[in-house]
Amino acid sequence: MLVREDLNVPLKDGQVADATRIKAAVPTLKDLQARGAYVIVMSHLGRPKGVDQSLSLRPVAQELGRALWTEVKFAYDCVGPQAQSGVSRLQPGSVLLLENVRFHPEDEANDPAFAQQLASLGEIFCLDAFASSHRVHASVVGVAQYLPAYAGRLMEAELNALHAALDYPKKPLIAVIGGAKVSTKIGLLNNLATRVDALIIGGAMANTFLKAQGHNTGNSLIDDTAIEAANQIWKTMGQRLVLPVDLVATQQTMSGQPLRVFPATNVEAGWIAVDIGPQSVNLFAQHLQGAGTIVWNGPLGITEVPEFSAGTKAVGEAIAGSGAYTLVGGGDTAAAVDALGLAGRFSFVSTGGGATLEYLEGKELPGVAVLKEA
Ligand code: ADP
Ligand code: 3PG
Ligand code: MG
Q1: Reported confidence tier of residue 295, pLDDT bands at 50, 70, 90
Q2: For 369, what's the count of Cα atoms within 13 Å in the CB-facing half-sphere?
Q3: How far apart are CA 33 and CA 142, in angstroms?
Q4: Domain boundaries in the chain?
Q5: What percent of the chain has pLDDT over 70?
Q6: Burial (CB count <10 Å: 0-12, 13-18, 19+), residue 372
Q7: Which atom number of ligand 1 is nearest to the Cα of residue 301?
Q8: Whole-model pTM above 0.90?
C-alpha cells in the first residue's frame, strides 16, 4: 500500500518542531498496519530544489515511529534501488517512510515516468495528504494514473468537515476572516460572500476595508492593491459585513511598547493597528452567539507577539464556546490556536494551509478530483 501523507512539518535544529501533521496521519497508517498491509509512506518536506539534506525526512521517520508506537524504516530515496530494497524487506503491518519526494524535481513537474516509478512500489494508492491536495504533483495526482486510488481517513475527515461547514451548514453560517492581505484571499472572500449570513473581518485585512471607506489607518499594514476589491465586497455584502469598531495600536510592532486603543475610523498618524479592541471583541462575540456554523481563517492581530493576541484569543474563546459547528483552517491560524491554548476546543482544525484556502474559495482540489475519477 503506497500512502501519500503530508508530513511537511516545521523543523528546528534538525528536529520536528510541531508534530501536528504527523499525528494527523496516524489513524490511516494504524488502520493499514492493523490490516496487515505493507505500508509505504511518501511525503514532501519544504521546498527543496533537488537534494537538500537539511530537508531530509529522516527525523520525521523517528517522530512518526513515536506516534505509531512502531519502528518506522527509512529509505534514502523515494524511487530506485534504495526504495525498492526498503520495500522488499517489509513485513505485513510494518511501515517504511521514503525520502522527500521533492528531492526529484519530477515530482512537482508531475512527470509521468516518475509517477510510474513511485507507483511501481505498491499495489494500491492511498491519498491521505489533504494539505497537499491542491498540488498537481506526481506523488499526489500522478500515481493515481497507475494504481487504484482511494482516500485515507484524514483526507476523508478533512473533506467531511469542510463539506459540512460550507455546503450544507447549520444556519446561521458565520465566517471570521483575518490575516494580513486581502489580495491573497479575494477569491475566498467572494465565495464566502455568497454563502454566509455574516462575514466578520479582523487582522490587517480589516485595515484595508477601513482605508477603502476613507478612514484614517495611520501606519497600519494596508494591502493597497486590494482597495477596490474590498469596496466591491463591501457593496455586495452590506450589513452582513462586520468590521472592527476599535483597534489596539502601537508605534512599533514589537513587545514592550505602549499601546493605545483607537476608534477603527481614526487610527492616528504614526500608530499601527496590531489587534482588534475590546469593543470589537464584544461586537464579534454578539454576532457569534447563536451561530449554527462558524468558519474561522486568519488571526485577528499579530499573534506572533503575545501582547497583540488578546483579540484573537477572546474571539477564539467566543467561537469555541458558541455551541456552533466550528471549523478552523489556515497554517497561521492553527498555530495561533495552539499558542493561545485553544487547541481541542473546535469541532475541527484543518491540517491544510493553501489547500483549505482553495476549498474555501470554492475551487475543486486536484487531489479530490483524481479520487472522484478513481
Ligand atoms: P493563515 O495562514 O491562517 O491563512 P494568514 O497567513 O492570512 O493566516 O495571516 C497570518 C498573518 O497575519 C500573521 O503573520 C499575522 O501577524 C498577520 N496579521 C494579522 N493581523 C495583523 C495586523 N493587524 N497587522 C499586521 N499583520 C497582521
Ligand atoms: C503546506 O504546507 O501547505 C503543504 O504541505 C503544501 O506545501 P507547498 O505549499 O510547499 O506545496
Ligand atoms: Mg499564513
Answers
A1: very high
A2: 10
A3: 25
A4: 2-151, 159-360
A5: 100
A6: exposed
A7: 20
A8: yes
| Ligand lying nearest the CA atom of residue 178 | 1
Per-residue pLDDT reduced to its tens digit, 148-207: 999 999 999 999 999 999 999 999 999 999 999 888 899 999 999 999 999 999 999 999
Q: Which of 42, 44, 100, 357 to mutate for ligand 2's pocket (most ligand atoms within 8 Å of CB)?
A: 44
Which CATH code for domain 2-151? 3.40.50.1260
Is 374 or 212 the better-scoring residue by pLDDT? 212
Does 2-151 match 159-360 in CATH topology? yes
Fold topology of 159-360: Rossmann fold (3.40.50)
- The strand pair at 39-42 and 2-4 is best described as parallel
- What is the reported pLDDT for 185? 92
119-154 b/e (C-beta count within 10 Å ≥ 16 → b): bbbbeebbbbbbbbbbbebbbbbbbbbbbebbbbbb
| Ligand 1 site residues, Cβ closer than 6 angstroms | 178-180, 203-204, 221, 273-274, 297-299, 301-302, 304, 330-333, 353
What grid cell was written down for 108?
512537482
The per-residue pLDDT for range 63-93, each reduced to its tens digit, is: 999 999 999 999 999 999 999 999 999 999 9
Question: How far is CA 352 from each of CA 151, 181, 360, rounded to the nearest angstrom?
Answer: 16, 18, 11
Q: Which residues are catalytic?
A: 21, 181, 331, 354
End-to-end CA distance of the chain: 16
* Closest approach atom of ligand 2 to CA 8: 5
